[in-house]
DNA sequence: GCAATATACTAGGACATCCAACCGTTTGGA
DNA sequence: TCCAAACGGTTGGATGTCCTAGTATATTGC
């Protein structure tokens, strides 16, 4: 999307904040902006790896989640909660995965409101292949040192807990 | 979008990775997933603060960028490069900001291909008010400790440089 | 000087995300 | 028992992001 800039635009923004008398919040602003940009870079890498499999990140996450469920099936609302996305986003992803024959919808045996999402065997196979690719091409070459990974997990874990994502640990 | 989960879903995913024999990349996977989720939480907070101003994050970023330009004007392509988003995303944002009378498009004096985006006085005022709100309600209460902020800036700065965002420092 | 190439922006399309509203199903209290 | 409230999912709409292609203007090279 472009060549490298001569200067770090986020460091520049931080300097602008300080120059305008907002020095007290300039550093957190820079950290937050850096998280945004890093996420953008990571999504682009991940989507690049998944494209040959005909998957997007959202659909991959759903497949991976199902592949870890004992039965290979989960209620929609459970998937929504675990992936921490809006229920309508799950509806959307399931629609497309179902069209691709990677999952099927089935009624819940006892609760008439609930729909179960179930992995097909093609879905399970594709999930495994995509995970192997991601492990090799993204997670295995994250660009973060071991210490940095530990720092990130700790710092962001605290943040997510404080934000109300979960209650344990 | 939901109540807190009893357990950290990302820590669970990391355990699943280890259980499947991918222990060598489980930690980076968890760190990357945590960045994704953190970004999502932060965007939601920011959009919540900006909504009363009739702004989205994308539009705010453009206004803020313009407000730091000496003349209050920038070429579209410059804005695209500094915000590190696709040119069509800038076109989209400018369309809406222009409709809201917060910016205006004007032709470049010497290069007929280039369009300048210029802040109106309403745009400048709104940008200032929105920034004040974000500083108070988001950046000033980020939930990151001072040390964490420094860690994040350093770790993510390295990452972004290695990813080709910029060349200096 | 003119053709070939590069640059700047926009139009249209595919996806994803969220919100608001709606429709069945289930649950719980009067 | 029965109806209101809660729950689970989908539909429709607004935004944003990217990609591909197309138009117009600049720049380069022969």
Automatic annotation (TrEMBL), chains A, B:
Q: Superkingdom of this entry's organism?
A: Bacteria
Single annotated GO MF = DNA-binding transcription factor activity
Which Gene3D superfamilies does the protein's record reference? Winged helix-like DNA-binding domain superfamily/Winged helix DNA-binding domain (1.10.10.10)
Q: Which InterPro entries match?
A: HTH_MarR-typ (IPR000835), MarR/SlyA-like (IPR039422), WH-like_DNA-bd_sf (IPR036388), WH_DNA-bd_sf (IPR036390)
What are the BP-aspect GO terms?
response to stress
Start and end of every HTH marR-type domain?
A: 28-161
What's the protein called, per UniProt?
MarR family transcriptional regulator
């Amino acid at each position: 999307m472009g060549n490298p800039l001569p200067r770090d635009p986020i460091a520049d923004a931080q300097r602008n904040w300080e120059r305008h008398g907002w020095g007290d919040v300039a550093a957190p602003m820079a950290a937050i902006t850096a998280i945004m940009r890093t996420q953008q870079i990571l999504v682009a890498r991940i989507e690049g790896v998944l494209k040959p499999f005909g998957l997007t990140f959202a659909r991959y996450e759903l497949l991976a989640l199902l592949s870890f469920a004992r039965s290979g099936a989960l209620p929609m609302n459970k998937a929504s909660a675990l992936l921490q996305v809006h229920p309508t986003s799950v509806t959307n992803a399931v629609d497309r995965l179902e069209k691709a024959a990677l999952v099927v919808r089935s009624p819940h045996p006892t609760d008439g409101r609930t729909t179960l999402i179930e992995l097909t065997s093609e879905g399970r196979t594709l999930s495994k292949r995509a995970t192997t690719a991601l492990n090799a091409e993204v997670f295995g070459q994250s660009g973060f040192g071991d210490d940095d990974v530990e720092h990130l997990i700790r710092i962001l874990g605290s943040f997510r807990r404080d934000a109300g994502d979960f209650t344990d640990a």
